[in-house]
Write a structure and sequence with these properties.
Helices cover 0% and strands 47% of the residues. With 108 residues, the protein is mainly β. The chain has one domain: Rieske Iron-sulfur Protein, CATH 2.102.10. The radius of gyration is 13 Å and the shape is globular. The structure holds FE2/S2 (inorganic) cluster (FES). The site of FE2/S2 (inorganic) cluster has 10 residues, from loops. GO terms for molecular function: 2 iron, 2 sulfur cluster binding; dioxygenase activity; metal ion binding; monooxygenase activity; oxidoreductase activity, acting on paired donors, with incorporation or reduction of molecular oxygen. Pfam families: Rieske. Keywords: 2Fe-2S, Dioxygenase, Iron, Iron-sulfur, Metal-binding, Oxidoreductase.
Length: 108
Amino acid sequence: MSTTDGWKAVTPADEVEEDDVVCVTACGRRLAVFHLEDGEYVVTDDRCTHGEASLADGYLDGDTIECPRHQGVFHVPTGKAMSPPVVDALPVYPTRIEDGQVWVQLPD
Ligand code: FES
């Protein structure tokens, strides 16, 4: 894992297929790396804000992810909670693609 100026390379971009999501760990955080069907990459926390569930195991439908545990729904690009029982937004981190890697900027 590479780090420069607070940015971390978390996975090769080509390891996340389009319309898919994978779970990675960086700096002690479990992250979900989304590659949406429009080509955009988005990195969020992997843990659902409602409970202990991995969103990378959820159902990705366009730009929304359904939690596998209680079927709460988040809007991936903004992290907005869209459907009960989730009410708290999902943290979304600044993300960029460089040198074939997905880079994310995490808070300290
Ligand atoms: S743990 Fe995700 S909706 Fe309950």
